[in-house]
Amino acid sequence: MFPSSASEIKPPPVYALGPRVSLSARIRSLPFFRLAAVWEAFFVALASLRQNKLRTALTLIGIIVGVTAVIAVVTIIKGLDQTVAQTFSSQGSTVFTISKRPRVITSREEFIKYNKRKDITEDDAQAIFRLCTACWRTGIAANDGVPVKRGNQKADAVQLRAITPSAMFDIDGVTIDAGRFWSDTEGNSAHEVCVVGSDIVTNFFPNQSAEQTIGEDIWAGGHRYRIVGVLQPLGKIFGISRDERILIPFPTYKKDFGLNVARGAFNTTGSLVVFIQTQTASQLEAAEDQVRAVMRNRRGKTFKEEDDGFALETEDVFLNLYSSATSNIYLVTIGVAAISLVVGGIVVMNIMLVSVTERTKEIGIRKAVGARRRDILTQFLIEAVMVTAIGGAFGVLTGFGTAWLIALAIGFPLLFSVWSAVLGVGVSSVVGVVSGLWPAWRAARLDPIEALRAE
Q1: What are 187-205's pLDDT values in tens digits?
Q2: What pLDDT, on the 0 to 100 scale, is given for residue 411?
């Protein structure tokens, strides 16, 4: 019944239950404990930043400058985009023009080429009015730059715009602030009447309100006109006023100035601009095709000739020019801001490396009492992110402030965007993570025994 030798005694079976996990490790793995540890790490990081105020301030400067540049550029361009879009789209997407030359000429060669074209005449306009079935409203405009005076007040090269009655007021989208537009009878009879911009009232009638100027006379280009209305102010764009102008009936302009005499900077050849409007945007293409066919036929153009002999344009020509001009500026400015953020990130990395060196003994003590590599890594990453996030928040405030001052000086609306604020803080936080990763990794890999020996 008993074994004959010790070799026959078999040990009891051993069952594999997996690696033994300590109670403290199990507690640390709980979600609540993890959250509490992260929260505690925030307080430790904040205490470390407060302990080295000068170092923290110097670190913040690089981040603040970069984020300020990003926020200011984004905010200014958004406001400028809205201003330009409203300015050049005031006539809507249903209006296009026919003119001798494009409104945007980029070279001297192009100017010489377009200047050889025939002028746009009243006969051309009448042919368009008669043959374009898709056209809804049509009008004629002639622009001139003339001297204006009243008493002792004088101004040179004020915009004088002659338009056909009724339709052009609707096409231009102008509204009256005081008084009225001239009537069809006054316009067709070439009466000496005018509607002026708000700057004309401010400059030539400094002690009178807009209502008080109604019925007053003003001299423009050597002719006297009676003011019957004042336009609502449009403000400035790129520092140029849009309210220093005088509108008169087109028949009056023909009577006073004629169309074959070279005058001023706006109308150098007597060429007109024809405005066409459709009822809906979907009819615009059909109207453009009809007008192009009419004008090419009047110019004797064949199908093989690419140059129409005139310019057919919508307001999109200015928006496209603006977009192409500002896109490069936007990219360059964002690039400069990105360089500032990179420099700020390098500063953060250097400061964090110094902090790791100074706190080597602290790291050794924490590891000796049970802190893991992940805990040390999280601690230093949180410190790096906290300093860059604080810098990002200050950068957002200073960026909006800078944008507000620039917008106030230039004169366009300021659009505060929550998206740009989130972008500023988010980008700065990413910079903190990237720049703090190497110092945090070095701190996490320190040997606790060697760290405790550090002085």
Answers
A1: 989 999 999 999 999 999 9
A2: 65
HSE, side-chain direction, 13 A CA sphere, residue 69:
20
Helix axes 53-88, 316-358, angle to 10 degrees: 170
**CA-derived radius of gyration, the chain:** 37
The whole-angstrom separation of Cα 420 and Cα 70 is: 8
Among 80-89, 162-171, 346-355, the range scoring the smallest mean pLDDT is: 80-89
Max Cα distance, the chain (Å)? 141
Letter for the amino acid at 217?
A: D
- d(CA 402, CA 216) in angstroms, rounded, equals 43
Asked whether the beta carbons of 339 and 78 are under 8 A apart, the reply is: no
pTM: 0.61
H, E, C per residue of 164-222 = CCCHHHHHHCCCEEEECCCCHHHHHCCCCEEEECHHHHHHHCCCCCCHHHCCCEEEECC
Does residue 33 or residue 392 have the better pLDDT?
392
Stated as kind and residue range, the H or E segment containing 439 is helix 418-444
